[in-house]
Amino acid sequence: MTTKTTRDLLHETALKAPLSSGVYLWRNPENTVIYVGKAKNLKNRLSSYFSGRKDVKTRLLISHAASIEYITTTNEYEALLLENNLIKKYNPRYNINLKDGKSYPVLRITNEDFPRIFKTRRILQDGSKYFGPYPDVNALDTFIETIFKLYPVRRCRTFRKRETPCLYYHMNQCKAPCCKKISKQSYNEFFGEITTLLEGKGEETTAKLTKQMKDAAKELNFEKAARLRDGIKALMVLQNQNVVESFDSEDRDYIAYNREGELISFTVLKIRQGKLIGRNNFRCTSLNEDEELLGEFMNAYYTDSTHIPPYIYVPTQNGLEIVSKWLEETFDSSSQIILVDDSIPNAARHKAAMNMAFQNAREDIIRRLRERGDTPALEELKTLLDLDNLPLRIEGFDIAHIGGKFPVASLISFYNGNPDKKNYRYFRLKTTDGIIDDFASMKEAVSRRYTRLLNEQQDLPDLILIDGGIGQVNAAEGILQSLDLDIPIIGLAEKNEEIYLPGNSTPLILPRRSDALRLLQRVRDETHRFATSKNQKLRTKENTQSPLLQIPNIGEKRALLLQKEFTTLENLCNQEESKVAQLLHIKADEATDILLNAKNLLEKQNQQKEIQKLSLGQAGTTKEKAAESQIISNLADLALE
Fold first, then answer.
1. Fewest Cβ atoms closer than 10 Å to its Cβ: which of 104, 301, 463, 570?
2. Which residues on neighbouring strands pair with residue 271, listed in sequence order?
């Protein structure tokens, strides 16, 4: 067996990274952080280190690295701030020439009778209000200019009483408090609105800007409309809540967890002096109920009074009264355990932090499942279904359509308990196009899949999972029997998570904590996602593409001319050859062919509509009943193929 090199292991870590934004840390064999970087897409960024020819600096970094760690964030904005914090904390060797170490600018509202607002990088403990930090300096500048256009507040650095107002007063851009042209109360109402906006409650101000922008556009004042449009964009950027850094100096922890069966991963975000300085993941196994897990973890995590912050934010308070008492009696700690919900101050910021902790815990669970291959779930399935072998290869099927249009069957594959995306397939269903018949659709998909595997002598799956109940399972089982295949097959009905076996209408119901059920749910959910996404793409294509393009010898230019002149396919079919020939500048026989093909297409569409009515139970004529018989005959022929 070939031994994997450190580079190979680093590359594997990169390939398994999530697609979300975040910060990554390269560590050397001594576990020292040697480089910190941010990424909009962690997987793409980390994978890029191992593709193509790299410069000397990058090759040197990889040669000195022993591991890669990453912290996911909600957006690239948070990643940028967290990167800045971690670079200052670790001072990594390979960041020295890449980062200037400057703090990001903030907005300051001064603590004065008549305040002013401006951008700064200095934080003074003088009672001023600070908002930020804001990595996008251009957006911040645009925002400040927008504030000055909306609110007539002062711009002068020093407030002095004057006899005559400055030019800004005469331009209606300042109320001249220096000349007592406005009262202190009225002036500070402006800053009440500005503060509300910066605290994430600025919907009214945003609506006000939007209305002004639309009014300017109606008046053909496009320069003003564009300026206001840019201001709205700047406001939207500034309204993003940032959990990585704030201006409250309180120390706090955010604790969240994610579980898959008995596997549980806890994430603790550590905020110290208003900055996120670290994220710790802890792995454990437990069969406890969810409401007992958090208290159990905190009892094990907090072992030193110096490491217990004054505030601990949690997603649930079930069973935590005892933990609070334990912290107080054991460590003489007055720490508050706070439930994150809408009732607490600055709820949006705390919710964002808790979501970030949940995201990191979920990512750790995914890594753990990949590492172990979900063997416990496979072993449980083998026992429950009385299988001869572990179901290493599981294939799942689902059907997606909208009113019978664009029916699609998805085939997804799991190997060793994890998605095997290179073996995903989808089928554009032919026998049920325009028909609502999930049983027939399932028959076609299963028949096409396993007829091909037999003909190509490829490996068959160890288990087939159908997204549906006993009807879909029996339909698929009938196809397998006609192909003389003995592959175990089950169905998972979503409503009550019931498992159906062929020929048995009594479902198997597993405990909610079952590893086997969790794996089956993952397979079923993936089949549904894959089928639905493909169906949506087909519908989008139909809605954006002219039906006239389906006529032979009609390209986009000709279709545009025909649609502009005749509007619909039916109107085109009622035209004379000479008119079509004159419009398209073609010969009479070519126009005749186009009209003939158009009529054939229209007839096919009308037949499809009749078939769809039939599948909806709206048929009644002799002709419709004959069509029904033909459909049933086609399905029977397919099952025998």
1. 570
2. 252, 276
The dihedral over CA atoms of 30, 34, 40, 46, expressed in degrees to the nearest 10, equals -60
Question: Of 374, 370, 377, 362, which is closest to residue 515 (Cα–Cα)?
Answer: 377
Instruction: List Cα–Cα distances, 52 to 46, 263, 629, in angstroms.
Output: 13, 38, 60
Cis peptide before 133 (omega within 30 of 0): yes
**Which residues touch 385 (CB under 8 Å, ≥6 apart)?**
391, 463, 488, 490, 501
Which tokens go with 345?
A: 């101050």
Write the DSSP symbol of residue 576: -
CA torsion through residues 198, 204, 210, 215, sign: negative
Q: Which amino acid is at 182?
A: I
Instruction: Give the amino acid at 118.
Output: F
DSSP 8-state code for residue 245 = B
Residue 348, both tokens = 């949006």
167, with CB counted inside 10 A (0-12, 13-18, 19+), is: exposed
**Is the Cα torsion angle 567, 571, 572, 576 positive or negative in sign?**
negative
| Residue of 130, 124, 128 lying closest to 107 (CA atoms) | 130
Contact 235, 343 (CB under 8 A): no
Q: Collapsing DSSP states into helix, strand and coil, what is residue 169? A: helix
At what angle are helices 577-584 and 556-566 packed, to 10 degrees? 130
With contact defined as beta carbons under 8 Å apart, do 479 and 446 qualify? yes
Q: Which residues contact 414 (CB under 8 A, 6 or more apart)?
A: 393, 394, 395, 396, 420, 519, 522, 523, 526
Number of other residues whose CB lies within 10 A of the CB of residue 378: 24
Contacts of 601 (CB under 8 A, 6+ apart): 547, 550, 551, 569
DSSP state of 308: -
And the tokens for 60?
């040197």
Return the residue matching tokens 């069966």: 261
**DSSP string across 201-221:** I-HHHHHHHHHHHHHHHHTT-
For the chain (length 641 residues), average pLDDT per consecutive 10?
A: 79 90 91 88 90 74 89 82 81 62 74 89 80 72 80 86 85 87 86 70 65 84 74 63 62 90 85 79 75 79 86 84 81 88 83 87 83 81 90 92 75 89 86 75 91 91 92 92 93 88 90 86 89 67 63 83 80 86 86 87 74 49 46 43 42
| DSSP 8-state assignment for residue 417 | T
Give the distance, in angstroms, between the CA of residue 633 and the centroid of all CA atoms in the same chain. 44
Q: Token pair of 510, please?
A: 């597993």
Residue type, 391: P
The amino acid occupying position 430 is K
What's the CA gap between 70 and 18, in Å, rounded? 9
Rounded Cα distance, 323 and 311, in Å: 13
Q: What's the distance, CA 468 to chain centroid?
A: 26
**What size, in residues, is the chain?**
641
The model's pTM: 0.47
Rounded Cα distance between 462 and 140, Å, is 58
Give residue for tokens 């911040």: 140
CA distances from 612 to 11, 519, 603, 608 (A): 51, 36, 14, 6
Strands 33-39 and 22-27: antiparallel
